[in-house]
Predict the 3D structure of the following.
Amino acid sequence: MIFGMKPNTYCMLLHLSQLLVFCLPGFGIAIPILLWAIKKDQEQLVDQHGKIVINWLLTELIYFVAAAMLSFVIIGLLILPAVIIVGIVFPIIGGLKANDGIEWKYPLSISFFK
């Protein structure tokens, strides 16, 4: 039990905490990192899901910056909404799968942490 929660529930919250970026800018990055850092050494499952989430956060940042830069040549205006949409959909899918005990690596995610 982690803070009175099953590890799967904690991992689900780890994934879904990314969505805070739409309500409280910065928290959608800080909270997942904090949740991972607190329990990564105590629970292997949290470490695995945390690495997936951190990899996605870094990848999403790269895609967002690239799309913003490419918006000057119009193509970025098409890519930017796609990045935002997958930034919503992937954490939801990851959270649902984590709650079911499944480790789901986000498609298109670069593996910075393995």
